[in-house]
Amino acid sequence: MSTHDLHRLTASEALQLIRTDQISVEEYARSLLKRVESRDSQVQAWAYLNPNLILSQARALDKVPKEERGPLHGIAIGVKDIMYTKDMPTEHNSPLYKGSLIQVDASPVMTLRNSGALIFGKTTTTEFASTTVGPQTSNPYNKGRTPGGSSSGSGAAVADMQVPIALGTQTGGSIIRPGSFNGILGYKPTWGAISREGVRMYSINLDTVGFYARSVQDLQLLADVFRLQDDEIPKPFILPGATFALCKTEVWPEAGPGTIKAMERAAELLRAAGAETVELDLPEDFNGMQDLHRRISQGDGRAAFLGEYTTAKDKLDTFLVGQVENVSGITRREYLEALDVVASLRPKIDRIASRYAAILTPSVPDEAPEGIESTGSAVFNAMWTALHIPVVNIPGFSGSSKLPIGLSLVAPRYKDRYLLNVSEEISKVFGNGGWQSDL
Question: Does this model's pTM top 0.90?
Answer without folding.
Answer: yes
